[in-house]
Design a protein that fits this description.
- The complex is a heterodimer of chains A (about 725) and B (about 160).
- Chain A is α+β, with helices and mostly antiparallel strands and about 725 residues long.
- Helices cover about 30% and strands about 20% of the residues of chain A.
- Chain A is built from 19 helices and 27 strands.
- Chain B is α+β, with helices and mostly antiparallel strands and about 160 residues long.
- Chain B contains five helices and five strands, in the order ββαβββαααα.
- In chain B, strands 2-1-5-3-4 form a five-stranded mixed β-sheet, with helices on one face.
- In chain B, helix 2 (about 85-90) packs across helix 5 and helix 3 (about 100-115) packs parallel to helix 5.
- The chains are: A alpha+beta (about 725), B alpha+beta (about 160).
- Chain B: One of its GO terms (molecular function) is metal ion binding.
- Chain B: Keywords: 2Fe-2S, Iron, Iron-sulfur, Metal-binding, Oxidoreductase.
Chain lengths: ~725, ~160
Amino acid sequence: MTEQQSASALSRRDFIARSAAVAGGLGLGFHVPFDAAAQSAAASTPEVNAWVVIRPDETVVIRIARSEMGQGTLTGLAQPVAEELECDWSKVTTEYPTPGQSLARNRVWGNFSTGGSRGVRESQEYMRQGGAAARTMLVQAAANAWGVPASECRVEKGVISHPASGRSTSYGKVAEAASKIEPPKEVQLKDPKDWTIAGKSVPRLDTAEKLTGKQVYGMDLRLPGMLNAAIKDCPVFGGKVASYDAKAVEGMPGVKAVVRVGESAVAVVADTWWRAKTALDALPVTWDEGPNAKVSSETIMAMLKEGLEAKEAFVGNRNGDAAAAIAGAAKRVEAVYGYPFQNHATMEVMNATAVWTSDRCEVWTPTQNGEAALAAASEAAGLPALRCDVHKIHLGGGFGRRGAVHDWVRQVVAIAKEMPGTPIKLIWSREEDMVHGKYHPITQCKLVGGLDDRGNLVGVHMRISGQSILAGLLPQNLQNGRDPVTFQGLNPGGAEAAIGYTIPNVLIDHAMRNPHVPPGFWRGVNTNPNAIYLESFMDELAHAAGQDPLEFRRKLMANHPKHLGVLNAVAERAGWGKPMPAGHGRGIAQIMGFGSYTAAVAEVSVDDAGRLKIHRIVAATDPGHAVNPQQIEAQVEGSFVYGLSAALYGECTVADGRIVEQNFDSYPVMRLDEMPKVETIVMPSGGFWGGVGEPTIAVAAPAVLNAIFAATGKRVRQIPVKNADLRRA
Amino acid sequence: MPRLNVNGTVRDIEVEPDTPLLWVIREQIGLTGTKYGCGIAQCGACTVHIDGAAVRSCALPVSAVAEEQKIVTIEGLSPDGSHPVQKAWLALDVPQCGFCQPGMIMAASALLAQNPKPTEEQIRSEITNICRCGTYNRVLAGVKLAAEGGEAGRG
C-alpha cells in the first residue's frame, strides 16, 4: 500500500467514525460512497420528536441547534431537556442537526445563532417543551401497550412503571411506538425548584474526547480525495489583487492550482496544507491597495477625536438636562477614555471544508451560526439553500468571530467551485487570521460630570465617538442610522443591558465614525468599552467628591436592586474597605449585559518598576436561573482571562491601511503566570434568564483599572495598559 | 527516506526536510490531536514530547528529528485517557473549547515527568501555553491534582 492509499484508508475510517460523532443520527447529506454506512446505524431509530431520539440501547440523543465553542452550551441545553424528559442523565448524548435539515423542516430547530450569550436563555423554553412533549409521548406509548391510562403511569430516569399492575418498561423499548403518537398540544413545565438535573453542576458531556486528541475540530477534518488550500487576502481592507504569477509556484511540491478568490484574494491548492502555504508564501502577488492604504492609527484617532466634539450624535439615553446641570454644578469632572481595535484570536484559526458540484454544495465548518453559514455557502455556491448544507464542527473558540459573517466559508466555496467534486479544506494561517479579523470596534469616549457642593452627582454627559458594529456588519439593522448596540449597558431600561444608576440629568450619545477596518461582535461586545468608560468615570467622580467609590455608587443604585445585589456581594466577599499594604489597591465595577448582572472587585499591586500584578478577583453574577453553576464559574474565570488580556495587551494598530500585529508575539495575551485567583459568586435570583458567556468580560478591565488607580494614583484611560507607565509619580 | 518514531511506531516519511514536525504529524501521519495555533512556537497548541521533553512542533523542521528520538503525541500519551493529567483534567472539567488542551496536557505531563511535585510558582512559569477560553485556574488545579496522584473522583 502506498502512503497515499494508506492515508486515504485512514481518513476514510476516521471519517466514518467522526461523521457518526459529528453529525450523529442525522447523517451527512453529501453523497460520498460511505455516506449510507455512516447514516444507517442511527437512522434506523426514529426520533420521538425533533429534539429527542432514544435508541434501543437506551441512549438518549438530545439535539442542539446552538454551537459548542467552549461555553458549555451542549451540556447546558441538554440539562433542561433531560430534566423535562425524566431520562437517565448518564445515558445522554448530543448531536447537531444541520441548518439544511432545519430549513427542509420549516425551521423546526429554531434559531441556530450562538452569540449574545443567548444559547440557553433564548432556547430553553421551547427545548424544555420538546423534552416534556417527548416524555408525554413515551409514557403514552407504554400506557397504550398496557391498556392503562397514562395518568396511572410513572416515570423515573427513563423507566416507565405502572404501580397498580407492577409492570415496567423503558424509554428505549417504547421509543419507536412513541414516535407514532400525536404530540401533546400543551405541556406543563417543571417548577425550577423541583429540578434534579438542570440547575446542578453536572460534568460537561464533551470533556473526555478533548483529553485524548479525539475531538475533531474543523481544521482536523479529512475527506477522501481532499486537497488543502492556503489563502492570502489583500492586506489593506478594501484593496484588490492586481496580478500574480502562478507559474512561479506551479512546479512546487504538491501544488495543484492557484486560484483567484473574489476580487481581493488568491489561494494555492495543494495536496497538503503546509505545501499550499509554502507555495503561497512564494507566490509573487501585486496588490491594488486603493485609497485605504493612506489610513493609519493616527488618522483614525483624529477622526474619533473630532467626533467627541461634534454637534450631531445619536442619543442612547437622555433624562433631564445634563448640559444645564453640569453648567450649574459646584464641581466639574472631565475625562477622555479610549478602546482600540482587537482581534478575537480564537485558538483555532478560520477554516472550512467544502465540496461543490453543479447541483450540490456541502460545507463542514466551525460556526456560531449554522443558518448564516448556510446562507453564505448558498450565495457563494450559486445554488439554492436547499441544495446546500453546512455540517457544524466543534469550534476551537468563537468569541463572536464565527457568527455574523462567514467570509472564510465564502472563500472555501469559491475555491471548491473551481475544482468541482473535489473536497477542499481551507485553513488560514495565524497571520491571515490576525490581519483579516472582524475587530472589536474602536471608540473614544468623553465624559463630563457635575457634582453639587455636597458631592452628589447632578449630571453626566457621556459622548461615545467611533465605530458601529451594525453599520459595518448588518446595516439593515440600524434604526434610522442609529446603532442601538453601541449603548449596551447604558440603556435607560429593558431586560437586556440597562444602566444601573439613577442620575438626575444624563445624556449618553454616539457620534458614529466608521474607519475602514471591519468591525465585529467581540465577546462582551460594547459592554466592554462602556463598562470601562462608565465604571472608571464613576470612580473618578467618587474621588472628586471625596467619597468611597462603593458608597458613591450605592447612593445612585437604590432603584436598581439587582445591580446593587451583585455589587454588594463582591464588596462583602472581597473585604472592601479593609486596609491593604502600600502599593496595593482594590477596584470595583459592575454592569448589566446580556440579561445578567455582574460585578467584580480586583486586588492589584504595582511595584517600583511599574510592574502590575493582579492578585485576586472576586466576581458575582446573577443570571436569573443558573443551569450549571460549575460551568458558570468556568465562564466567569475565563472571562477574566479574555477581558484582562484585552485590558492589559489587546491592541491592533493600523499602518498603511493594514493591521500591524501578525501573531501572538506582537499580540500578546494573558498566560498562566499572570492569572489571578478568581473567586466566583453565582447568585441566581430567579424569575429571569440571563446569559453567562459574555457579561463578566466587561467588569474585568474597569475593576483592574480602578484598582491600579487605588494602588498608584494613576488613571489609565486608554487601554491596553501595556502602553501606560504605572510607576508612582 | 527519513523515519520517525511516533507513539512507538517507526514510520517512513516522504516530505520536504524543512516541513515542520507538526504538519508531518497532522498531514502525513494523520494524527490531528496535535494542533496548529500560531506556527511560531508561541502558543504551545502543537506541543509533543520528544524523548520526554515538551517540544513545540510547529517551528521544528522534521529534518531536525532523528529516528532514534521518541516522539509522543496526545494520542500516544496513554492507551485510554488514563494518564494522571488526563484523569485530573476529567475530574475538574478543565477544557472549554478544548483546542489548546492537547498541547496543555502534553506540557503538563512533561513538567510532572521532570518535576513530580512542582510548586505553584513552578507550574505558573513552566506552563506557558495559551488558552483563549481562559482555563488557566483549572489547569493549575489540574496539575496539582495530578501531582497528588490524580485519583480523585469526577464531579
